[in-house]
Design goal:
This protein is of the alpha+beta class. The chain is built from 10 helices and 12 strands.
Length: 338
């Protein structure tokens, strides 16, 4: 299998950290010539290394989030994951015979009913839930892979950590109009309306959008993000990010979520792609490597478990290989707007 080049790794890093700024900004960050950047960017989307999504903020109606981590009975795993995927509020689901994980976005007051349904499922041996406000304060890192990728490939991250979309900068206090919601739905559905390989898909984010669409993004109702598909990205320097770990625990007295995050990143060189805070309970999503390449090999860093135990009690870890996970819902937000 071919390996990712330094230039390809740099372009992927630049795209994972990009926002609504002009393409020239990402081009400068990547450090590769313009023509090379354009070729690699097109390849990254055509070969499925990267894909784009538009994330709705809570201002569009889904004010609460529920995260579920379950251990299924082996013979029931597929059926339970199917039942979860039938929930209209499910936006991200992944699972295998050893674990199930789901992210659900809901209107106010509906998370308790969903939690009851999930807890009543007979196919689960164990289930842990985190019910939080869909806001940066409770979800300070929301599926942001720029940090782990930049560290893995030796790049400098730009926006990590990115939280759940904060919403309009000047909220009016009024619910969004039907017309605004319809426009948001059209934008959210955009990546699924285009045929793979079409040139329009590889334009730089919202470039070419109608002015009204760009204005809605600029106001913060939606956030454009680029996500990686690690199953299609070639190895880098002999290694791959092939392990998924979901860690959880309860903060000890006098320890804060910011303290834990600071030590994970600064001391243990772990860059969570997900960080959820429900009162003193935390949930972390992290990626690990298989193979010896990349990831700051040889750097001095503190072991992860002692760092966690210094800040958390009741530490739990669920870790599996990515190849054993199915992803039936991959950042699908359109049902929230219909």
């Amino acid at each position: 299998m071919r390996e990712l080049s330094e230039g390809e790794a740099a372009v992927v890093s630049a795209l994972l950290g990009t926002g609504l700024e002009p393409q020239a900004t990402a081009l400068r960050r990547s450090g590769v010539p313009r023509s090379t950047f354009t070729v690699i960017r097109r390849k990254a989307f055509q070969e499925g290394w990267l894909y784009e999504r538009y994330l709705p903020s809570a201002a569009l109606g889904a004010e609460h989030a529920l995260f579920a981590l379950g251990r299924p009975f082996a013979e029931s795993a597929r059926a339970v994951l199917q039942r979860w995927s039938e929930e209209p509020s499910a936006v991200y689901l992944t699972g295998g015979v050893d674990l199930l994980f789901g992210a659900f976005l809901l209107k106010e007051g509906r998370s308790a009913a969903l939690a009851t349904r999930l807890e009543a499922d007979p196919g689960l041996e164990q289930l842990k839930l985190w019910k939080v406000e869909a806001a940066p304060s409770s979800i300070p890192v929301y599926f942001d892979y720029e940090g782990v990728w930049s560290h893995w490939t030796g790049q400098r991250s730009l926006r990590y950590p990115r939280p759940f979309p904060p919403g309009p900068r000047k909220p009016s206090g009024e619910p969004p109009s039907p017309g605004l919601r319809e426009t948001a739905r059209e934008i959210v559905e955009r990546p699924f309306r285009e045929t793979p390989g079409s040139e329009e898909l590889h334009r730089f984010g919202p470039a070419g959008f109608p002015r009204s669409w760009r204005r809605l993004l600029a106001r913060g109702y939606l956030e454009w993000r680029v996500f990686p598909d690690f199953s299609t990205i070639p190895p880098f320097q002999g290694g791959r990010l092939d392990r998924v770990a979901l860690l959880h625990g309860t903060l000890r007295d006098d320890h804060t979520p910011a303290d834990l995050f600071r030590d994970l990143v600064g001391l243990s060189r772990v860059f969570p792609f997900l960080y959820v805070i429900e009162n003193h309970r935390v949930l972390l999503g992290a990626l690990g490597r298989m193979g010896s390449g990349g990831g700051g090999a040889g750097e001095d860093r503190a072991p992860v478990l002692p760092t966690l135990e210094r800040h958390l009690s009741g530490v739990g870890v669920a870790a599996v290989g990515r190849e054993g996970l199915a992803i039936p819902r991959d950042h699908r937000y359109e049902t929230l707007l219909t």
